[in-house]
Amino acid sequence: MNIKDKLNSLNIVPNKALGQNFLVDESAIESIISVSDVGGYGVLEIGAGLGALTSELIKPAQKVIAVEIDKNMLDVLNTLKVESEHGEKLSLIHDDILKVDFDYIIKELTFGYTQQFKVVGNLPYYITTPICQKLIKHHAHISQLTLMMQTEAATRVSAKPNSAQYGVLSIASQYIYDIESVLDLSPQSFYPQPDVHSTVITMKKHDYDPEIADRLIKITGICFAMRRKTIQNNLLASGLDRVKASELLENANIPPNARAEALKIEDYIRLVKAWK
Ligand code: SAM
């Protein structure tokens, strides 16, 4: 049964406010599962919907936790648990991904902190940025993310300095992960069709220092607090005194009148190292 008929038969009207644009493009589903590379891993799926990705992820994965906010979707996902021969590998959490107990998810999917897990999701676009911000904070446990988002949001993740899209998310993501755009999809790949184009990105972990990553997220947050102001003014606004701010910038070899968006990741790493 196609998704439209399935929704009709269940008497479900897609909820626009929850970003419910269901993936109906079979070849896109196949590509996403293939690049997700979840074989043998614990997987967090964000916004499982009617289970288009879930039903395929549970085959190779060791365990899948799917978080979904909409009770109607949960009812459908529950049938997958019973009907799929891999259903016992699926755990469902009825919650808002921004409020869910992440410590519990991490413990479950890392099998008691013995390995890292992977994240997959056709994200609800209205909260793409807060979801990504939340995930990046848990970098220590996440080895790969495969995320479908609005194309414009994908450009923010891989943005380079001196562009309006460049910010905390770009810097932290690129410091920790190799980012690749793997698939561009037009609205026709979804039902109902969204107003925007979509992109699937993969983020695969490379060598990095987890402690620096944690501090990088905090310090870039301070530096980008007021985008239009100089880096020095942002440091002062965060409560640093003038002498300490100047010293810090000098030690990191960063001009005080530079703006946050002009600095490269290497510049921020020097700042993190200078800021003891
Ligand atoms: N994975 C399905 C697919 O690819 O067809 C559905 C993707 S749809 C773009 C996004 C899903 O996220 C919807 O099922 C929606 O109900 C769910 N969702 C929206 N807001 C959410 C939230 N705050 N927490 C968890 N799930 C959410």
Report on this model:
The chain is an alpha/beta fold. The chain has two domains: 3-208, Rossmann fold; 211-274, rRNA adenine dimethylase, C-terminal domain (Helicase, Ruva Protein, domain 3, Orthogonal Bundle), CATH 1.10.8. 40% of the residues lie in helices and 19% in strands. It has helices at 3-10, 26-36, 54-57, 71-83, 102-109, 128-137, 151-157, 168-176, 210-223, 231-237, 242-251, 265-274, and strands at residues 22-23, 42-46, 63-68, 90-94, 117-122, 142-150, 177-185, 190-191, 198-205. Strands 4-3-2-5-6-9-7 form a seven-stranded mixed β-sheet, sandwiched between helices. Helix 8 (168-176) packs antiparallel against helix 9. The longest helix is centred in the last third of the chain and has 14 residues, at 210-223. The termini are far apart. The mean pLDDT is 97. It binds S-adenosylmethionine. Residues 18-23, 47-49, 52-53, 67-70, 73, 96-98, 122, 124, 127 line the site of S-adenosylmethionine.
